[in-house]
Structure formats: structure tokens, C-alpha cells
Write a structure and sequence with these properties.
Length: about 550
């Protein structure tokens, strides 16, 4: 059949900035294969399925994985035959496909396409034909050899079988035009479901896959479009928003079938993929690294609590301006910023709240709904300072007109994003601010900015102009796994009445433990974490943050 040429302008709701205009050819709707098209359109309109791959080495373990995937709530289990160390096609497939608890996708991936199978293609294709005969719900065949399988099938496709024709690129993600042409070629060949998997070298690569999925959805072509590796994780989380046919989630950590895959249980319980739809707003944390962040657990559960239709994802970002420029549609409604992007975020926003500007660090970005402009805020400042004020014995922030920090020496260790927020906040409260930093010149810069005093870390050891000072560590010293490190000796701590540590893994750092032993009041970084997150939640949603729930979640995460 002649192919129809579509010119597609990506809908404004997904104005991912790169390649707004692209060409994709899909088979003529009036053409061959109309009976499978009905099935396709039904599937294309449905919810994104969760498929759990089994990479077990034995058929026994694979059968157990199928039961575990069903118990987890997966819709489909993928049987990776190439992972079986001794595969007996007829007996193993019969065993696996008889009484399967959920639909099964059979894949027999060769080494030349990133799998484990090292033999000839004929044997492999024969096994896939056998899987069809034995009732597999889905069979995956690589695009490069799909024509051979289709020839052998000679038009006799089992009624309930859905054929996935797949292409994997382990190097990069091609242009939207190339992806579109590949999808069209795969569909023309006779795929019920097109599968294209690429690799993200930068998070902006994923936007091209989203564009392809949106366009395929419009044309009612079921597509699995995923981008591998850490920088591609959002493709796995957000495909339900853009209309991907399915997403893969591993049975547990260490049992991934592709790089960047997260667990099925995280997809269901943290990111709630079943509840994500076209109108779901997307928030997330921009950082590098970001995989360790607990913010997705916290914000997603808080969104659910208040019934806010949104999802919160991790963004592993190398280049902040390029990221913000790429994900520029209203769908991407707000961002948290963490190391190392807080300072660069100030220059990337269209407008910056005066406090964030004075601090020189933005930890929250909101896309203003009325004009799409990015507005930067800093919730670290209020979170940390209010936590320290509340940590001062006998004082309640809400009751007092004058801050208990006023007139007292307030020593900040560190001059990075958190250090700036603390130094600015303490100065605003009337404290005498002293900044000690490893790189002395940065301490001096910050001190001169806010009218404070600068010290080297060595000088800090013998610094005690008064008793009852306040200390705030804003460096990562003492953070997991270096839990035996501390920024100041126990001996020096006796001059401080209150000691705060921005580090919150572990909850009680060596600094806090020794400060408590020296008789100081201590304030955990967890308190700052909870309060800055509550501030972000309120900026994201316009709703009051569910404080007790957020506290419970954070305590649970750190138990
Ligand atoms: P940042 O902008 O990268 O600043 C890091 C600061 O720590 C710099 O002053 C740096 O000194 C100093 N530093 C790093 N390693 C050091 C070492 N080994 N010895 C001495 N000084 C060292 O980072 P940030 O955003 O301010 O975050 C800093 C810490 O605060 C992190 O542990 C972060 O997790 C924590 N934090 C906690 C919260 C919360 O909610 N509790 C919020 C924000 C941040 P140089 O200038 O010499 O490089």
C-alpha cells in the first residue's frame, strides 16, 4: 500500500521545544489489515500497561516470577527466553504458557540486539512461532528479522496474538524525523505494536520519544517508546501521560532487563502510573545526582493525600538551560532544584522572588499558568531558619515578635546554596553572622554580601567571642556514607547553645550527637527538609501542605 504522509505539529499541550514540526508516515488507514486495526485502536486508547520482565535462568524461577509479577499487580509478564540457561522450547514454553496468571509476552533477544541468545536466528524464530502456537499473548521480534518471522507465519496469526516489532538503539536517540520513519517502517511491516527503545545521553533526548508517542497515539498506532539509562528514566514514568502502550518495571532491584529500569512496585506505588493521564501535571526534582532523592516519595504521597492530579519525578540534568528550554510546555508545571543547579537556576528563571535573588539560590521553580514564565523561589531559607528558631528552648516562632536569633552570633559552616540561605536568613533575623568555609574566598564573598564576618575552617576551632552561639553546618561533611566525619571538634562545640546540621542522612549526624553530649540543643536537617518541602508543595499546588502526613513519610523514610 502507498503510505500516507502526515505533517504533524505537536499539540501545544506538549510543546517540547525541539523539532516541533516533524514528518511521520504511517500506513494508509483504508489499507490492509483492518481487522487488527480495530484491536489496535482499542489498545491505543487504553491505559498504559505495566509489564514485568522475568530474567530468570530456569523455567522454574520464571514460573515463580510470573506469579510474583501477578501478585505485584502487573498487567503483563515478559518471558525473556534468552536468559534461560538451558532452554527446552516445547516443554518450557508449554509449562510457562499453560495456566499463566497474567498475559505473557515472549521475547528471545539475540546478542546482536542487546540480549543473551548467541545462536542462529532460525532456531530463535522457531521458538517464537511455537510460543504463538501455544497461546502467547504477545511475541516480540526484532525489526531486522521480523520479515522472516512474518513469512513463516504466512498470514496465519493466532487471533489473540499481538505482534510487537522492536528496535533497540544502545547508543543514542535519533531525531524525531528518524524515529517517525522507523515507527512507520515497523508498522508497515505488520506490527500490532511498535516498540522503539533508544538511549538517553541527555534528558532532553526523551522529549523526542514523547513527541513520537503523542503522534502515534493520534494516529491510533500502539507504541512502546522508552529511553534507556539514568537520563531516560522519565520515559518510563511519564509514558502513561503521553499514551505509551506499556512500560517495563522490574520485579525487584537488580533484576532489570534494561539499563535505567526501575521496579514495578515503584511505578505502581510511588509514581502511581495507573492514575497518570493526559491532564496530570508533572513536577520533579532537578539535580545531579538525583537518584538518591526522597523528594518523589514525599511529594507523590502528599499529592495523593490532597487529591491533586500530579506526579513528581526525578530529573537527572546536566545542562539546566537546555532542560528548561526543552520541557517548556504547561504540563511541566514546576521543579525543585538541588545540587548543583540551585545557583544556575537564578539566571534561568524569567523572574526571581526578591529573597531568592538576595540569597543567590533558587530551590523551587513554578511555571506561571497565565503566561508560562518561570518564577524562582527559595524555600530552604524559611525551612531552615524557622526550624532553628523553634529549636531554641522556650521559644515559639508563631508567638514572638522578635526572633531569638537577633543579636546572637550565628556561625554558618559552608558557603554554597544552603549556606547562602542560612546566612541570609540569620542576617534578616538580626543575628551577627559568621561564615566559615573550606574555600575561604567564598566565605569572604558571602560575608561581604550580607555584611557578616568570614573565617577559615581552622580559625573556627578557636572562635568563641561569646557563649551560647548558634552553629549551622551547611556542608555535606558527615553525610552518609562518611558518617564519622564532622565539621567541628567536640571541644569547640561547648560554646554553642544550638547546633543545626543541614545533613539529614543520617538523621543524627556525628556533629549533632557530639553537640547534644556537650549540652547544646540540636536541630536535625530533617526538620529543614520537611519545612522546605512543605513550602514547595504549597507553591506547586496552591493548597495547604498536609504537614502531619509529610512528617510521617519523612520519618518512615529515615527509620
Ligand atoms: P553546595 O552548594 O554544593 O555547597 C557545598 C558546601 O559544602 C560548600 O561550601 C563546600 O565548600 C562545602 N563542602 C563540601 N564538601 C566539603 C568538605 N569535604 N569539606 C569542607 N567543606 C566542604 O551544596 P548545598 O546545596 O549548599 O548543600 C550542602 C549540604 O546541605 C548537602 O549535604 C545537602 O544535602 C544539605 N542540604 C540539606 C537540605 C535540607 O533540607 N536539610 C537542603 C539543602 C541542602 P567549598 O566552597 O570549599 O566547595
Amino acid at each position: 500500500m502507498l503510505l500516507q504522509l502526515f505533517v504533524c505539529i505537536v499539540p501545544s499541550s506538549l510543546s517540547l521545544s525541539e523539532s516541533r514540526l516533524f514528518l511521520i508516515s504511517f500506513p494508509d488507514k483504508q489499507g490492509e489489515g483492518s481487522e487488527i486495526r480495530d484491536q489496535r485502536s482499542e489498545m491505543a486508547m487504553g491505559k498504559t500497561l505495566l509489564c514485568v520482565p522475568s530474567v530468570a535462568n530456569t523455567a522454574e524461577e520464571m514460573a515463580a516470577d510470573m506469579a510474583a509479577a501477578a501478585a505485584m499487580g502487573a498487567d503483563v509478564v515478559e518471558l525473556r527466553l534468552d536468559c534461560l540457561s538451558s532452554f527446552q522450547p516445547r516443554s518450557d514454553l508449554h509449562r510457562l504458557l499453560t495456566n499463566r496468571p497474567i498475559p505473557a509476552l515472549v521475547t528471545y533477544r539475540p546478542k546482536w540486539e542487546g540480549g543473551e541468545y548467541d545462536g542462529d536466528d532460525e532456531t530463535r524464530i522457531d521458538a517464537l512461532l511455537l510460543a504463538m502456537e501455544l497461546g502467547a499473548d504477545y511475541v516480540d521480534i526484532e525489526f531486522k528479522v521480523a520479515a522472516r518471522l512474518l513469512n513463516l507465519m504466512s498470514g496465519r496469526k493466532p487471533e489473540n496474538l499481538k505482534l510487537i516489532i522492536s528496535s533497540h538503539n544502545y547508543e543514542m536517540t535519533p531525531s524525531v524525523e528518524e524515529l517517525g520513519n522507523l515507527a512507520a517502517s515497523i508498522q508497515t511491516l505488520g506490527a500490532d505494536i511498535v516498540k522503539i527503545t533508544t538511549t538517553a545521553n541527555d534528558i532532553s533526548d526523551v522529549s523526542r520519544m514523547f513527541q513520537l508517542i503523542v503522534h502515534s497515539q493520534e494516529k491510533q498506532v500502539p507504541i512502546i517508546g522508552l529511553v534507556m539509562k539514568d537520563r531516560g528514566v522519565i520515559s518510563r514514568l511519564l509514558c502513561p501521560k503521553f499514551g505509551g502502550y506499556l512500560t517495563f518495571g522490574s520485579l525487584n532491584k537488580g533484576r532489570e532487563s534494561a539499563p535505567g529500569q526501575i521496579t514495578g512496585s515503584e511505578l505502581l506505588n510511588v509514581y502511581r502510573i495507573r492514575e497518570i493521564g493526559p491532564d496530570t501535571k508533572v513536577f520533579g526534582i532537578i539535580g545531579k545526582p538525583v537518584g538518591h532523592s526522597k523528594s518523589p516519595n514525599l511529594h507523590n504521597e502528599a499529592f495523593r493525600e490532597v487529591g491533586f492530579n500530579a506526579v513528581y519525578v526525578p530529573y537527572l540534568v546536566d545542562d539546566l538551560p537546555s532542560f528548561l528550554n526543552t520541557y517548556s510546555s504547561p504540563d511541566f508545571a514546576g521543579f525543585s532544584c538541588t545540587i548543583p543547579h540551585k545557583e544556575a537556576a537564578v539566571t534561568c528563571c524569567d523572574e526571581v522572588d526578591p529573597i531568592a535573588k538576595a540569597i543567590g539560590a533558587v530551590n523551587t521553580i513554578i511555571r506561571r499558568p497565565s503566561d508560562g514564565k518561570l518564577i524562582g523561589y527559595n524555600t530552604d531559607y524559611v525551612g531552615a531558619i524557622s526550624a532553628i528558631e523553634d529549636g531554641i528552648a522556650g521559644y515559639r516562632v508563631k508567638d514572638a515578635a522578635v526572633s531569638p536569633l537577633a543579636g546572637r552570633h550565628f556561625v554558618v559552616i559552608g558557603a554554597g546554596g544552603a549556606g547562602k540561605a542560612l546566612a541570609y536568613g540569620a542576617n534578616e533575623k538580626g543575628a551577627k553572622v559568621v561564615i566559615a568555609n573550606r574555600t575561604y574566598v567564598r566565605a569572604k564573598e558571602l560575608a561581604s554580601l550580607i555584611g557578616g564576618h568570614a573565617l577559615t575552617l581552622a580559625d573556627l576551632e578557636n572562635y568563641h567571642p561569646e557563649e551560647g552561639m548558634i552553629l549551622a553546618n551547611t556542608t555535606s561533611i558527615g553525610m552518609h556514607p562518611n558518617v564519622n566525619d564532622t565539621p567541628l571538634s567536640k571541644q569547640a562545640l561547648k560554646h554553642y547553645a544550638v547546633v543545626f546540621d543541614a545533613v539529614y542522612t543520617p538523621k543524627v549526624t556525628r556533629l549533632l550527637r557530639e553537640a547534644e553530649e556537650s549540652g547544646s540543643n540540636v536541630v536535625s536537617g530533617l526538620e529543614m527538609f520537611i519545612r522546605q518541602a512543605m513550602g514547595q508543595f504549597e507553591l506547586f499546588t496552591g493548597l495547604t501542605a498536609p504537614e502531619s502526613l509529610m512528617r510521617d513519610i519523612v520519618l518512615r523514610m529515615n527509620a
